[in-house]
Design brief:
This protein has helices at about 1-10, 15-35, 50-60, 60-85, 90-105, 110-115, 120-150, 160-180, 190-210. By secondary structure, the chain is mainly alpha-helical. The protein has one domain (about 1-210). The N and C termini lie far apart (about 55 Å).
């Protein structure tokens, strides 16, 4: 029996296409749940366009957190898919690292809803930041494991540059996120604003810097 178990562990998790398909599915569902978490406010006392504008402005914080979370998922989807652009092999352990990563991806709608309902509380920012931190840690370990076990082609000319870029990006981003989360002790809205600014930089600034290529 141990021999059969060992053989199973050797052969399991080698299909990269399956984990990529699962990742795309989980991310798409998580993004959809973020949208479903938004609702149109209804208030019987609205009689004028001005009243409706005031009600719409009152939903601003919800839209702000939605925007932040959608970008969060977009950034981590890009990072995970980029790793699999260079990962050519897999095994059971790498497979499970991806699954645990996706487990916390699926948790983003919850941490988003929690922050939306308690946006003025520091704990809500802490829960959201912890979700991002765990995602960053797992995606870093995922890449580290793939490199250590030669699942990435080390012979590729750009390997060192790609490896350095992925590691630096994850570490730097997590430092920025932690710093932004600490700003909640001044203002939770300030913390959210800085997180969004960080995300916009990582999503858009490299494109502005290097051009449309």
């Amino acid at each position: 029996m141990p021999k059969l178990t060992d053989e199973y562990n050797i052969f399991a998790g080698q299909d990269i296409k399956r984990i990529n398909s699962l990742a795309d599915g989980v991310f798409s569902i998580a993004m959809t749940l973020l949208v479903l978490g938004l609702s149109v406010p209804v208030l019987e006392s609205i009689n004028t366009e001005g009243d409706l504008w005031l009600l719409l402005l009152a939903t601003g914080p919800r839209l702000l957190v939605y925007f932040m979370s959608f970008i969060t998922l977009g950034i981590f989807w890009t990072g995970h898919s980029m790793q699999y652009t260079y990962i050519t092999q897999s095994d059971r352990h790498l497979n499970w690292l991806s699954i645990f990563f996706l487990m916390f991806v699926a948790l983003i709608p919850f941490s988003t809803a929690f922050l939306t309902e308690y946006i003025t509380f520091k704990l809500a920012i802490g829960v959201y930041w912890l979700n991002i931190l765990i995602l960053g840690l797992i995606v870093y370990v995922h890449w580290q494991y793939a490199c250590k076990n030669n699942f990435v082609s080390h012979d590729a000319p750009e390997y060192k540059e790609v490896d350095r870029s992925i590691r630096n990006r994850i570490i730097t981003a997590q430092i920025f996120y932690a710093s932004a989360a600490l700003l909640c002790f001044i203002s939770t809205y300030l913390s959210i604003g800085i997180i969004i600014a960080i995300q916009l930089y990582y999503a858009l600034a490299p494109r502005f810097k290097h051009g449309p290529h």
